[in-house]
Amino acid sequence: MNHPRRLTVSSAFASALALAALVSASGCKRESSASAAPATTGAAATTGAVADPAHVAAVETLDRMAESDDSAAASMRSIAGRMQYEAEHRPTGTIKAEDVFAALAKAGVAVTDGPRQYVAVVAGAEYCVGGQTADGLGVAVCEYASADKAKAGKAAVEKRFAQLNGVRDIVVRGATTLTLTGRPDAPLASSKQLASAAFATL
Amino acid sequence: MRSRLIGGALLLAAAALPTQSSASSHREAPFITEMPKVDGTDFYVFNSYENNRAGYVTLIANYVPLQAAYGGPNYFSMDPDAIYEIHIDNNGDAVEDLTFQFDFDLALAGGGAGIKLGVGPAGSQKMVGIPFAAVGAVTAADTSKQNVLETYGIKLIKGDRRTGTATAITNAAGGSATFKKPLDNIGTKTIANYGAYAAAHIFNVNIPDCTPPAGTTPRVFVGQRAEGFAVNLGQIFDLVNLDLDGATPQANPLGPQDQGANVIGSLSVTSIALEVPAACLNAGGGDTIFGAWTTASVRQARVINPTGSFTQPSREGGPWVQVSRLGMPLVNEVVIGIADKDKFNGSEPKDDGQFADYVTNPTLPEVLELLFGAAGVMAPNNFPRTDLVTAFLTGITGVNGTGATLAEMVRINTALPATPAATQQSLGAALCVTRTATGGMVNPANPGCDVAGFPNGRRPGDDITDLALRVVMGYLAPTGDAPSGGLPFVDGAFLAPASFQSAFPYLNNPRPGAP
Q1: Strands (E), chain A
Q2: Taking CA atoms, what residue in B is nearest to A141?
Q3: Is A157 in contact with A138 (CB distance < 8 Å)?
């Protein structure tokens, strides 16, 4: 039996902040950049692979922020700060997450547990929000800077979180993606169909 | 580019999760960071798997975190003004029935004067004390060049740890109640063969009212050991370094177990290792399950001596106050809220109902969903998390359950045979569990099932970070309640059971301060 969590975005922030404080308490040193390199890279070793320029640019931007003294940089020092940054820098010109959730609710696939903000950079996105429906369907909406980046984000998620590919569908529409994750014991195909159809109308 | 990338990563990593923490309980609470000598870091309890030690249980309590090999000149002695204890509850009431209490002493050679060297011209030399822990080569047979001498005594206390009956544990060879602790691994010029030197500090002991298996004797060792824990959470939760394009060799939260660096692999801890016949730990009457945890306590008051000396830098007084507590790994580090971490360190298992919300409604899965929800990862929805209550607070019925009392301890069933080191599973007993619609079911017939591993006790080679990530995401919960419970979360730092010594004290020799 599922019980909707009452964790709101703000309490999620609180959780993150609590763990952030935990880290401050642990206070152990991190190895230098040289020694932090993995001893064995395993499957992640892709010698000769070329980094995605967009990813590299994003990282460089974050590095510049890390080295600056402005408040935006300071805010990036926590998950909450990262999410705040993402919330304040949503892309324009694409389908908004709020509109997607409204359309889903209208189609009978309302997110009852959430929606709450997710860290978007994990999916290569600018902004993500998600939650679960009453029947347990996981719904995540991510807004990207461009349609190409949305496609690339979908591919990256399908590669990195491949174990979920059997129960997860990612639909791309413009620069917005709709990620629908069923459950191992219940694929929730009908809910996925309804959600996808509603997304297609936007 | 590489350094810049990691530099940016540091900012996010520094606030995400225990990215820079080092082991299952290193520096996990604000107050204990002020007292590293009494900071418990890891606690192991397992049926001994060394050859010919069937019937024994090994208890290892690690203290004094983050020891760099070059940490001279004082290195990492134990606190002579503290007591270190290992508690056993063998009747399921979450109250100690047995306590092994270790009390350390620190002294200088030469009857307390320390080793001195004659300095100056002949005839008018002055004898001046050396600033080092040793002034020449030290071996197990010749400690004459050793300037700092650390010893300890052990008591077995039956009943309440403070008011019970205490009896000394003695050396089986000679009957002394004082044991030598080896110097830390200063370097190869001071201690050429540290392995042999340390091994000479493994003592056969007599435990009061304890009859060991025929032809065997219980053992004790206290000394520096290589850090046995492995963790790489930094890269996992280091959002900037997430490998979105396949070109950045960073850890993948669902990738191989051995893909990342162990960020604490070069450090050491101080181990209190004790090997006791299982029959002397269990309650008897056929009961083969007990719970265990370790604590450290200091005197309530400490007054700094304004004219401090080696023997009396401060004056201690008042009753013992517990400041460190450790049973199951990672509990105080990533389960208990920061406001209660010091409270937890001062608490006893019998009162753990006060912390139940942290287990029944944990925050870590929510943070994992927050981090990876965009990719479809979902936290479990079964509240209260009875699956975690089973894993952390009661034990698994039929395996190592101790009843309904909620108490955080390492529980072990000593009747389940030890698995030889060569065939141990790094995921402990996880493969014994089959996920079902009603929750995890223990099935010893499962391929790879290693029932002698965590959470049935804890061995050095049990990769409890990977296990903990999976369990908090619902590995033991009903499949319908934990849609991501079957995902193979990893931190990327691999603990290989075969990388540890297969004989007491099991944890490896520490790295030398100089090659």
Answers
A1: 111-118, 127-133, 138-143, 168-173, 176-181
A2: B374
A3: no
